[in-house]
Amino acid sequence: MEEVKRNKMKRFDKDFKLSAVKMITEGGHKACEVARSLDIHPNMIYSWKRKFANSGEKAFPGKGHLTELAALRRELREVQMERDILKKAVGIFSKTTENGSSL
To answer: The whole model's pTM is what?
Structure first.
């Protein structure tokens, strides 16, 4: 019986992707040559090259790294939550002082 291969996607780190792209952009090699020598599909090289052209050294943040936009969105949610808590607190304290009683 033949062993069934699982279609598991390979993962490449930032340095690997950058060096592959630089082989094309700075080294003068063709994308298909680089892909063949690295044993990856040429479309992957083209994708990496496009991402590098758009974002430069920030193109490959890696797994678990937040992009600047994601970090700002998270901070915005936290600040909005704090604001809502403060609004509720002001409402509670306003009611107690309007009744003439204090805490």
So the answer is: 0.53
